[in-house]
Design brief:
- The protein is α+β, with helices and mostly antiparallel strands.
- The chain has three domains: 2-130, Orthogonal Bundle (Helicase, Ruva Protein, domain 3), CATH 1.10.8; 135-288, Glutaredoxin (3-Layer(aba) Sandwich), CATH 3.40.30; 364-444, Ubiquitin-like (UB roll) (Roll).
- It contains 13 helices and nine strands.
- The protein has helices spanning 2-5, 9-22, 27-36, 41-52, 77-85, 93-124, 135-150, 162-172, 188-195, 199-208, 219-228, 258-350, 387-395; strands at 175-181, 209-215, 235-242, 245-253, 364-370, 376-382, 404-408, 414-415, 437-444.
- Strands 6-5-9-7-8 form a five-stranded mixed β-sheet, covered by helices on one side.
- Helix 2 packs parallel to helix 4, helix 2 (9-22) packs antiparallel against helix 5 and helix 2 (9-22) packs parallel to helix 6 (93-124).
- The N and C termini lie far apart (115 Å).
């Protein structure tokens, strides 16, 4: 409380206005916010409203908006208090010091009582416009009532909240024209019927800027009016992007004719067009750099994917070669096993070949065998020998194929001489029709 009592009447008035606009009840918090922004009420209120909507601050802190129309500010209670209770500089002597102490005492008492009364009155009878419940509805309601009263020939109103209009103007790098409508003002009706309805005004505004309007009798319009600190009606404010902040660059307060309005808007646009051009160039450069980085990142990702694909193919090729090598080794091992088994069988079957009978033996059968490679074999068997003896003899010869069949010359007849042939392995040569001299042909089944 001691810190609050040390404030001037103007600072106290700003704290109370800040409370009305933001709904913050703690006066210490209001004081801290205003002090942080050098007691700039417009910047402080706008920052708090944007923080509630999750948006960045839109007003510059280091410069006041230029006024194109100078209007005397209304005499407020704080100004009256400053007039009557301003603290003079202490004069020399005891009389001056006593006067200074008395003035300081009355000033502190007045500020304390005024603060208490305003604080109490705000609780007893709060301004209903402080509570914003449907800002879009307030704007649409104003547009409908405006068209019902003044017709549809007017600049295109932005159908959204003030914050949305600010953000769209910032995103599109366009001028934003704000119109605050006060139905009770004597110049409002003439301004709406003659100035805003003029076709040149309509064409110029629609071509060069976004146009947002609302009535100050609604919570949304009242909030904007307090943030922009209007002094008279009709009120127009031009906002554009300067130094990366949405800043009020021009104000028009009071009634103006269409030609004067266009002239003043053109002056504002000409003075601030360079800032928007620079912002557009900066944005184009930023977008170009961003696009270039995206393209570089995309090229890097594609190169990385290509390298990964090459590595994947190399891995697949290595796996394929490893599989082929493994398969080849398995086949070679299988072939070695087969050859080893054949050698073992030849040794085993060699003992199963019967002895060759004498040439003059009455039951001897002289057999000539022709192998696939042209080798000619001759051997005598007894008629009582079975066909598997012939098979063993052929199989054990070094030039014999592993898998073969034996057939007679003419007429061609395949002999079932393999030991595995069921029912025919024990057939004798006589039973097979081999009696005296026969010529047999061996056919390789694997050829």
């Amino acid at each position: 409380m001691a810190d609050l009592m040390s404030l001037s009447a103007e600072q106290t008035e700003k704290i109370l206005q800040f409370q009305d606009l933001t709904g913050i009840e703690d006066m210490s918090v209001c004081r801290d916010v205003l002090q942080r922004h050098a007691w700039d009420l417009e910047v402080s209120v706008q920052e708090q409203l944007n923080m509630r909507e999750g948006r960045p601050s839109v007003y510059s802190r280091d410069r006041e908006p230029p006024d194109l129309v100078q209007s005397p500010p209304p005499v407020s209670e704080s100004r009256i208090s400053q007039f009557f209770f301003s603290t003079p500089a202490p004069a020399r002597g005891s009389r001056g010091i006593l006067s200074y102490i008395v003035s300081l005492f009355f000033r502190i008492c007045y500020d304390t009582v005024a603060t208490f009364l305003r604080f109490t009155f705000g609780f007893i009878r709060p301004d209903p416009r402080r509570y914003i419940t449907d800002p879009v509805g307030d704007v649409l309601k104003f547009i409908n009532s405006f068209e019902e009263k003044y017709g549809s020939r007017h600049p295109v109103f932005y159908q959204g909240t003030y914050s949305q209009a600010l953000n769209d103007a910032k995103r599109e790098l366009r001028f934003l024209l704000i119109y605050l409508h006060c139905e009770d003002h004597q110049d409002t009706d003439n301004f709406c019927r003659n100035t805003l309805s003029d076709m040149e005004v309509v064409t110029y505004i629609n071509t060069n800027m976004l146009f947002w309007g609302c009535s100050v009798t609604t919570p949304e319009g009242y909030r904007v009016s307090q943030a922009l600190r209007e002094n008279g009606y009709p009120f127009l404010a031009v906002i554009c992007l300067r130094e990366n902040r949405m800043t009020v660059v021009g104000r028009l307060e009071g009634s103006v004719n269409p030609q004067e309005l266009i002239q003043r808007l053109q002056t504002i646009v000409q003075e601030n067009e360079a800032a928007l051009i620079a912002a557009r160039a900066e944005r184009v450069e930023r977008n170009f750099n961003q696009t270039l980085r995206q393209q570089q990142d995309q090229a890097y990702l594609e190169s990385l994917r290509a390298d990964e694909e090459k590595e994947r193919r190399r891995c697949q090729e290595r796996e394929r070669l490893a599989d082929e090598e493994r398969s080849r080794r398995e086949q070679e091992q299988a072939e070695r096993n087969r050859l080893e088994e054949i050698r073992r069988q030849k040794v085993e079957f060699m003992n199963r070949i019967p002895d060759e009978p004498e040439k003059n033996h009455p039951d001897a059968v002289h057999i000539v065998i022709k192998l696939p490679d042209g080798t000619r074999l001759e051997r005598r068997f007894l008629r009582s020998h079975t066909l598997d003896a012939v098979f063993y003899y052929i199989f054990c010869h070094p030039s014999s194929p592993v898998s073969f069949e034996v057939a007679t010359n003419f007429p061609k007849r395949v002999l079932q001489c393999s030991p595995g042939a069921e029912g025919t392995a024990k057939q004798t040569l006589a039973e097979a029709g081999l009696i005296r001299r026969e010529v047999l042909f061996v056919y390789d089944l694997d050829a």
